[in-house]
Amino acid sequence: MDLHEQAFLSAALGVGDERLEQRLLVGFHLIRDCCRMADDPAWVPRVSVAKKMMDQAIIDGVFVPGDLELVAIARLLDALESRSSSRALLYSAIVAYGVALFREVSFDAASTAFEISDGLWTPACSATDRLEATFYRGLVLIRGGQIRGASEQVPLQLALQARAALNHEFVALAGVMRQNRVMLTGNLQATIVEGEKRLKRLQSRPSSRAEGMLLNTLAAAYGRAGNFDQALRHASRMLHPRYHFTVRLAALNLSGVTLILLGELDAAEAAFELLLLAPTAQFRRSGWLGLMDLHARRAERHAFERAYEHMLNQPLTPDAKIHFWHLSGRGWATFGDVARARLAYDEAYALARAYGFGYEIFETEDHIATLPDPDQLVRTVDIAPEVAAHITALRDDHAGEIAACMA
Questions:
Q1: pLDDT digits (tens, 9 = 90+) for 102-124
Q2: What is the rounded CA–CA span in Å between residue 276 and residue 249?
Q3: What percent of the chain has a predicted confidence (pLDDT) above 70?
């Protein structure tokens, strides 16, 4: 077993969830054949084990209808079974599998898939597939929390490759990647100013893909900056059918988050419930996070705890994991468990510091500063029912007079 196979197997066995592990183990058996073919083009793939595991996973309901990871696995399996021995076909299929893994937040497995694709590449392979691999390799680094180091060079690398291939769309996507890095560092002003400039530049060389992803970054940045009007305007644009379905799903999440902050809880609930139908786990988890926040704001403790338990061990991007701990802290504080809320915020703060996410660091500090004193909260809980009962009794004594005033 070579290093790439070991890395993919470690990623599969380290997810901590039996169903997710079963999905990745199907891909592992195909990855093994890809590694063999990278070393020996004459290798004859042995896909029978992977086919049996895939069929069983479908029977077990591990893959949902329309699951993008299943589509990518089936495509990779077909490429391996093809008797044409086409490196271009196999290269395209493993890149597509890496993209599907990225969208499932299986970042370690996705990174390994892209590394294996390097060994399969030949000049006969599609230049666009190679650009796609570079783009998502960069997103794996950035969304995985490595906003410094290797990820700093990937946007430039992609831009140079795209210019050499005369592919203007990927030149624009290199800018999108850079925007993602800037926002995660916490520089919202730079994200907004530069993002609006990039949108205008796209008017001369249109790309719905780059435009949709820029709108996503801008809507998130405006929302974080408290400009909810612009956040919703950009999110609304993202719902247009010309954009990729992932952009439209992101629009639902951004809209739901913003609507909650505006007090439109029913509309936000509709957005989050729609996300539960998404064909990628990443967006289904976003829906659960939104509902978790909603239940806390409505003081629905049982529903909040159910969502909390469901999300506790789910794979999440670093910024989403920090968001999960923020929602947990806010929820426990709402239900009077200040000690548990503080522990949740401490988890968020440790992650934000470790990844260097500037906005999340400041946001967490603000959350901690607003936590009530536990002793004072206990005293308030003791006196509140007494005061409430007294005021209600007074209101009942004057019910007739109040009714006359409101007539």
A1: 988 888 899 999 999 998 898 98
A2: 10
A3: 94
Q: For 208, how many CA atoms within 13 A lie in the half-sphere containing its CB?
A: 12
And the tokens for 171? 């030149």
CB 41 within 8 A of CB 87: yes
Write out the DSSP string of 312-374. TTS---HHHHHHHHHHHHHHHHHTT-HHHHHHHHHHHHHHHHHHT-HHHHHHHHHHHHTPPPH
| Cβ pair 175, 211 in contact under 8 A | no
Helix (H) or strand (E) holding 65: none
Domain ranges of the chain: 1-125
pLDDT tens string 321-339: 999 999 999 999 999 899 9
Residue type, 348: A
Instruction: Summarize pLDDT for 221-267 with one digit per residue, the tens.
Output: 999 999 999 999 999 999 999 999 999 999 999 999 999 999 999 99
35-62 average pLDDT score:
86
What is 189-204 written as a DSSP string? HHHHHHHHHHHHHTTT
User: 């998502």: which residue's tokens?
Assistant: 136
Q: Which two tokens stand for residue 188?
A: 């919202």
173: CB partners within 8 A, 6+ apart: 135, 158, 162, 207, 209, 210, 213
Q: What is the dihedral of CA 239, 241, 246, 250, to 10 degrees?
A: 0
Q: Give the list of residues 6+ apart from residue 333 with CB closer than 8 angstroms, or none.
A: 341, 371, 372
Is the pLDDT at 43 greater than 90? The verdict is: no
Mean pLDDT of the residues in the chain: 89
| Selection from 200, 205, 203, 197 nearest residue 179 by Cα | 197
Which of 232, 145, 242, 156 lies closest to 185, judged by CA?
Answer: 145
Residue 91 main-chain phi, psi, to 5 deg? -60, -45
